Amino acid sequence: MSPSSGKRHSTHALWRSIAERPWILALAVVLALVLLPLAVWLDLRNLSDAGLTTQARTLNAMVSEIRAYYGSNVVGRVQGYTGDSVAVHNYEDVPGAIPIPATLSLELGGVIAGRGGGDVDYRFVSDLSFANRAPHKLDAFETAALASFRQSRAPDAVATDLSGSLFERQIRMAVPVVMGQACVSCHNTHPESPKRDWQVGDVRGIQAITVHQPIARNLFSFKYLFMYFAGAGAFGAAFAGLQWRQANDFRRMNAELEEANGFLASISMKISKYLSPQIYKSIFSGEKDVVISTERKKLTIFFSDIKDFTETAEHLQPEELTSLLNEYFTEMSAIAQAHGATVDKFIGDAILAFFGDPETRGAREDANACLDMAIAMQKRMVELKGRWRRRGIEKPFEVRMGINTGYCNVGNFGSADRMDYTIIGAEANLAARLQGIAQPGGIVISYETWAHVQDRVRVRRLEPITLKGIPGEIVPYAVEGLHEVETAAPQTINEEDEGLVLHLDIAKLDADARRKAEAVLEKALGAVRMQEHGKGDKA
Fold first, then answer.
1. Among the residues of 153-222, which ranges form H helices?
2. Could you tell me which residue ranges the Guanylate cyclase domain spans (predicted)?
3. Of 219, 234, 252, which residue is a domain's last?
4. Which of 7, 99, 338, 450 is 20 to 30 Å from 251 at the Cα level?
5. To which H or E segment does residue 17 belong?
């Protein structure tokens, strides 16, 4: 790692450490809020000090020049003359004379303007100059101020004007020069005076002061604010850079997480195809741990098998057999899921499912749900056989089903590397044995299951059987129907025997279909009776 990259890494680590500690950022904000008024106060004090220093320096220079002017043009001329001194406007031409106030003001304007450092201008001007003096050039502000003063004749009137540009401001202030008694007497009798009818209170001219204030000069007076904002800007830029970098890191991590989540979602969807929905949900929700453990629970076990599957498979091509078997499993699994069954596994052409784990509604409700599922499956098989025959399947699947209720061990069986969530116990074996003695399209239940569903099912008691591992005889019951069916008109009729395949869903028939069904049934009945009478005649 180069020294520069190491420095960048340490700086990034420092900012990341600060970002991970919000109290440091909060402290920095509070400190910034405290330092802002302090920086403003320091700059205002600095600005005031700079302004006072400039004003003092300018005033000192002007006073020094005024003192020098007074020493040379007033005191010097009086001391160097032995006669009586007089005050005249052309004092330079008269030995021992001193300037009158108007002349003094005019000349002081030049002294102040020359020593004001360009920041202060002083003008003593009038539009009525003496004959031997150059006329004064009044600008618009001075002309307007003079006219206003003469109209108002107010000795304390003041005219101001603020102007300037982006980098400089200035203020101009003008006051009237009012004629006193001595001034009236002098001006009305002086041979060079342009006006001889002056009166006390008349405005002779104006006295104007202009103060310039360059803005750029005061910029450096805000050095503390500049330092504050420079520090705040540097901190803000660094923090923004950190946020930008973190945002990029977050975007990258989010993209990686989305990719990982998408991959995991795809994997989980694939895994879900190998597990029942209940087991899949309990594992991925964290309700069950993936460890070898079992529980003993009372379950209702369902076992189904296809009669003569091997013989049927010999008459079908492998592709057709695969399609047919997958269609059968899909239809049966959908019914099982709708009734809340946990599909344990597919064993060749057999289905093992159970009720009572991972969720149970009670032994009685689980047994009834399992019976309803089996009946729904057999009804669906009648429909499927009709569909398969129409597709050219000569011997469609016929399914036998067995149901038993009892205690089993349920949970994860296997090794630490590979497990199977299943059930083990004699009760599961009994369900498989009951299936084996059922008629094709029939359902056989155990006594334990019958005890839970006897109030709603019609059964036929079969011959007792024995099972290895279970003492005593087992009494099976063949399900013939539900009591509810007898109390209402049947909506579906499903009958199948040698030479007979009948599936009639009355609920789906409209008026035309009913008339057609009646005609077909009457035709079939007539054909059967004719065949029966024909046999009787032959006999």
1. 181-189, 215-219
2. 300-435
3. 219
4. 7
5. helix 3-19
Q: Which of 80, 75, 131, 82 is nearest to 104 (CA)?
A: 75
With contact defined as beta carbons under 8 Å apart, do 148 and 135 qualify? no
What's the rounded Cα separation, in Å, for the pair 312 and 397? 8
Residue 285 lies in a domain: no
Same domain, 476 and 494: no
Where a domain ends, among 440, 466, 487?
Answer: 487
H/E stretch holding 532: helix 511-538
Alpha helices in 273-352 (DSSP H): 277-284, 309-314, 318-338
Residue 108 sits in the same domain as residue 205: yes
Contacts 24+ apart (CB under 8 A), 282-285: 282/358
On whether both 43 and 180 belong to a single domain, the answer is yes
Instruction: For residues 38 and 224, give the distance between their C-alpha atoms in angstroms, rounded to a whole number.
Output: 9
Helix 223-272 with 22-70: angle, nearest 10 deg: 160
Number of domains in the chain: 4
Task: Flag whether 74 is in a domain.
Answer: yes
Angle (CA) 329-413-416 rounded to 5° is: 120
What is the sign, positive or negative, of the torsion defined by CA atoms of 130, 134, 136, 137?
positive
Condensed to tens digits (0 to 9), the pLDDT of residues 68-94 reads 666 666 766 676 677 777 777 677 777
d(CA 265, CA 381) in angstroms, rounded, equals: 34
Mean pLDDT value across residues 367-390 = 91
**C-alpha to C-alpha distances, 22 to 12, 25, 72, 151, nearest whole angstrom:** 16, 5, 74, 71
3-class secondary structure, 2: coil
Please tell me the distance from the alpha carbon of residue 1 to that of residue 225, in angstroms, as a whole number.
40
Residues 516, 431, single domain; the answer is no
Full residue range of the structural domain in which residue 496 is found? 490-524
DSSP E strand boundaries for 55-152: 87-88, 98-99, 120-125
pTM for the model: 0.50
DSSP string over 355-419: ESSSS-S-HHHHHHHHHHHHHHHHHHHHHHHHHHHHTT-SS---EEEEEEEEEEEEEEEE-SS-E
Do the domain assignments include residue 537? Answer: no
Residue 1 within a domain: no
- Rounded distance, CA 492 to CA 319, Å? 33
471 and 348: one domain?
A: yes
Of the candidates 247, 485, 461, 456, the one whose C-alpha atom is nearest the C-alpha of residue 367 is: 456
pLDDT of residue 486: 45
Shared-domain flag, residues 314 and 324: yes
Residue pLDDT, tens place only, 295-333: 889 999 999 999 888 777 777 888 888 888 999 999 999
- Pick from 79-93, 151-165, 423-437 the range whose average pLDDT is largest: 423-437
Instruction: Enter the tokens of residue 330.
Output: 């899909």
- Say if residue 503 is in the same domain as residue 409: no
- Determine the Cα–Cα distance for residues 342 and 353; give it in Å rounded to an integer: 5
Task: Report the distance separating Cα 82 and Cα 341, nearest Å.
Answer: 140
Residue 33: helix, strand or coil by DSSP?
A: helix
